C-alpha cells in the first residue's frame, strides 16, 4: 500500500507546496495526494490549513501530511494541537529521519523562507522512505507520549 498524503500551505509556502505536491504525485510510493490549499494568489491563515491536514491524518483518511509556511514552525504548532498528531519542523536529513524512526511523526512542516526548494524536495523524498517500527526501542517513548495525551 502506498502513502496517502495531504499537502497544504499558507501564502508564504504556496509555491513550495505546489512543487512538493507534484513531486509526491509522481512518486510510485504515493497512492494519493490531496491538496487542501492555498491556491496561487490565495490567502488562508496557516492554523486553518494545518488543523485541516492534521484532522485528516487523525481521522485516517490520510497517512501523513506535508505543510509549508514561512518557517514551518507555525504549521507544526497548529497541527500538533489535533489529538493524536505528532508534527515536526525539520530542515535537515537527520531530523527528518529521526522524526519518523524515533517519534513516529505524522506531519512534516517545512519553512519556505528557511530552506531552498531543492533541499525541501530532497527532504520530502527521504521522508517517504521511513516507516516507524513499533518493535523499536523508540516505541516505548512514543507510547509515553500517547499516554500523556490521553490524560491531558
Automatic annotation (TrEMBL):
GO terms for molecular function: intramolecular oxidoreductase activity, interconverting aldoses and ketoses. GO terms for biological process: carbohydrate catabolic process; carbohydrate utilization; cellular response to carbohydrate stimulus. It catalyses: D-erythrulose 4-phosphate = D-erythrose 4-phosphate. It comes from the Bacteria. Keywords: Isomerase. The keyword Isomerase applies. SUPFAM superfamilies: Ribose/Galactose isomerase RpiB/AlsB. Pathway: Carbohydrate metabolism; erythritol degradation; Carbohydrate metabolism; D-threitol degradation. Signal peptide: none annotated. InterPro entries: Rib-5-P_Isoase_Actino (IPR011860), RpiB_LacA_LacB (IPR003500), RpiB_LacA_LacB_sf (IPR036569), SPI_LacAB/RpiB (IPR051812). The keyword Isomerase applies. Its EC number is 5.3.1.34. Belongs to the LacAB/RpiB family. This is D-erythrulose 4-phosphate isomerase. The gene is derI1_1.
Amino acid at each position: 500500500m502506498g502513502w496517502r498524503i495531504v499537502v497544504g500551505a499558507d501564502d508564504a509556502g504556496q509555491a513550495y507546496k505546489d512543487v512538493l505536491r507534484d513531486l509526491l504525485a509522481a512518486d510510485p510510493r504515493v497512492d494519493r495526494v490531496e491538496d487542501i490549499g492555498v491556491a496561487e494568489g490565495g490567502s488562508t491563515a496557516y492554523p486553518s490549513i494545518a488543523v485541516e491536514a492534521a484532522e485528516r491524518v487523525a481521522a485516517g483518511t490520510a497517512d501523513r501530511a506535508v505543510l509549508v509556511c514561512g518557517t514551518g514552525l507555525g504549521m507544526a504548532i497548529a497541527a500538533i494541537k489535533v489529538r493524536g498528531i505528532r508534527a515536526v519542523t525539520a530542515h535537515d536529513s537527520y531530523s527528518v529521519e529521526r522524526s519518523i524512526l524515533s517519534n513516529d511523526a505524522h506531519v512534516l512542516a517545512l519553512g519556505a523562507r528557511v530552506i531552498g526548494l531543492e533541499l525541501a524536495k530532497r527532504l520530502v523524498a527521504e521522508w517517504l522512505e521511513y516507516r516507524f517500527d513499533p518493535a523499536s526501542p523508540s516505541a516505548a517513548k512514543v507510547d509515553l507520549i500517547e499516554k500523556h495525551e490521553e490524560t491531558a
